[in-house]
Structures are given as structure tokens and as C-alpha cells.
């Protein structure tokens, strides 16, 4: 008895599903744009994003050049967004904002456009192209709509994404250091410090510049060592001035002493 009831329920569910799809397909093929649009709005209201999008796309060409064209384009883009198809949504929203700059939906479209790139932005260990895109879109939104209720949220997101780029810069530089490419590490570490002077990794970055500079000088040919040890000592002095109580100071002082000893033994004047 239970098994028979289960089979009946499953059959009914399948029938309803097929009926819904069949009804949608019939409307799409009807050639009646108002029916297609009405069904699209019905599914949109029920948050059936994929079906609503299919119907909006089916209705769209009927309304080109009419007052309804922008709303259909916007609703379709929002369906993609709500369905988490952020790449498709970003493309549709970009097309929308270029074509319908005076639409009543433009502020929401610009906001969703920025959010698409935010959701597409990966963690700091991966390529940050989308993070850069998100920051540009957010800056553009805040500039255009400074009174928008979305601004506070976007400012928080901007801070989060900037932190992601900061972390990426640090990780890239640290990777060069770990694999022994000390010249590249020095350049990358200095660039990270210049671009993000208030980085939470500032102390570590400044120490790594000292360490990488020391290793770079130590591994250099004799004719290059003097200049490179002098550069290392400059980095050490900057680190000591910034973080005199650092837990890494003894280690940094040990490297600086070795550099001074080398310079003294080679009769090179230094004022350390």
C-alpha cells in the first residue's frame, strides 16, 4: 500500500513538472509577447529565476524600441544574478548600463554589476583580475551615487577587496623569498610596502627585505657584494627605526653585524 502511494506521488510530481515545462514551451512558441511577458513576470515573482530568464529572453525581441525594453533587459539580468550566474549577469548588466543609461533601473543595475565582480573575486592565493574589476565598478558606483543607501555596504566591500589585494601582494613577494629568488623578492616586497603602507604585514615585510637583501648579497659574486651589503644595511636601519622592539630584531642585528664585518674586512667605509 505504502509503495503504491509512493509511486502515485512520484508520478504526480513528474506530471506537474512536465506540465509546467510544457506550458512554458507552448507560451514561448505562441508568438504572443504579452503572454510570454506575463508568464515571465509570474515566474520572476515566484523566484523561479531560470524559467523567468528563459521567458524574458523569449519576449525580448518583441519589445525592442518600446518602453518595456529596458525592464525586460533588467529583469533578465537580475534573474542571472539571482541564479548566481555572475559572468552572464555582468555581461547583461554592462550592456544594460551602456544602452539604458537613463533607465529608472540604472542605479540597481550599476550596483548589481559591481556585486557580480565581487562574487567572482577569488581568494588572495589566486588571480585577482576580478577583484580589480570589482574595485573599479565600486568606485564608479560610489562616485555616481554618493547618496545611495548601498554606499556604506560598498565601502565595506571595498575595504575587504583592498585587503585581498594587499594579501596577494604579500603572498607573491613571500613566494619569491621562499624559492630563493631574492632579487625578485626584494622588488616585490618593496612594491607591496609602497602600495600598501598600512599593511598588517608591514613589520614582516620590512624584516623580509632585510633578510632577502642579506641573502642576495651573501650569494653574490665578490664584485657585487659591497654595494649589496650596503643596501642591506640601509634596509636594516629602516627596519630598526620602525620596529626597535621587534621580535625579529636580534636576527636582523646578526645579519647587519655580518654585513658590517664584511665591509670592515674589505676596508670599506660605513657609518653603522
Q: Topology as H/E string?
A: HHHHHHHHHHHH
Rg result? 30 Å
Number of strands: 0
Percent of residues in beta strands?
A: under 5%
Low-confidence stretches: 1-19
- Count helical runs: 12
Name the overall outline. Answer: rod-shaped
Largest sheet: none
Proportion in helices: over 70%
For the record, give the distance between the C-alpha atoms at the N and C termini, rounded to a whole number. 93 Å
- The chain-level structural class is mainly alpha
> How much is the average pLDDT?
90
Provide a quick synopsis of the model.
The protein has 272 residues and is an all-alpha fold. The protein is 76% helix and 0% strand.
Task: Describe it.
The protein has 272 residues and is an all-alpha fold. The protein contains twelve helices and no strands. Residues 1-19 have low confidence and may be disordered.
Tags for this model:
mainly alpha; 272 residues
Topology (elements, then pairings):
Layout: H1 2-28, H2 33-45, H3 49-60, H4 69-82, H5 86-99, H6 106-120, H7 129-144, H8 151-178, H9 182-195, H10 202-218, H11 222-242, H12 249-265
Amino acid at each position: 500500500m505504502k509503495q503504491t502511494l509512493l509511486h502515485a506521488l512520484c508520478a504526480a510530481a513528474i506530471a506537474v513538472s512536465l506540465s509546467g515545462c510544457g506550458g512554458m514551451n507552448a507560451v514561448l512558441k505562441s508568438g504572443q509577447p504579452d503572454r510570454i511577458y506575463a508568464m515571465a513576470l509570474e515566474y520572476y515573482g515566484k523566484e523561479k529565476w531560470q524559467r523567468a530568464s528563459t521567458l524574458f529572453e523569449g519576449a525580448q525581441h518583441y519589445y525592442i524600441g518600446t518602453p518595456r525594453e529596458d525592464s525586460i533587459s533588467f529583469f533578465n539580468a537580475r534573474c542571472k544574478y539571482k541564479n548566481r550566474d555572475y559572468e552572464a549577469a555582468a555581461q547583461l548588466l554592462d550592456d544594460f548600463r551602456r544602452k539604458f543609461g537613463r533607465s529608472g533601473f540604472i542605479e540597481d543595475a550599476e550596483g548589481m554589476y559591481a556585486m557580480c565582480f565581487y562574487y567572482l573575486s577569488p581568494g588572495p592565493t589566486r588571480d585577482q583580475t576580478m577583484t580589480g574589476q570589482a574595485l573599479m565598478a565600486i568606485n564608479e558606483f560610489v562616485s555616481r551615487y554618493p547618496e545611495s543607501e548601498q554606499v556604506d555596504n560598498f565601502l565595506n566591500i571595498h575595504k575587504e577587496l583592498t585587503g585581498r589585494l594587499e594579501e596577494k601582494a604579500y603572498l607573491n613577494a613571500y613566494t619569491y623569498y621562499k624559492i630563493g629568488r631574492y632579487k625578485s623578492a626584494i622588488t616585490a616586497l618593496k612594491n607591496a610596502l609602497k602600495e600598501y603602507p598600512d599593511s598588517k604585514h608591514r613589520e614582516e615585510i620590512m624584516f623580509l627585505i632585510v633578510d632577502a637583501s642579506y641573502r642576495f648579497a651573501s650569494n653574490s659574486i665578490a664584485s657585487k657584494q659591497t654595494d649589496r651589503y650596503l643596501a642591506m644595511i640601509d634596509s636594516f636601519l629602516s627596519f630598526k627605526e620602525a620596529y626597535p622592539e621587534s621580535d625579529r630584531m636580534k636576527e636582523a642585528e646578526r645579519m647587519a653585524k655580518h654585513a658590517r664585518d664584511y665591509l670592515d674586512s674589505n676596508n670599506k667605509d660605513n657609518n653603522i
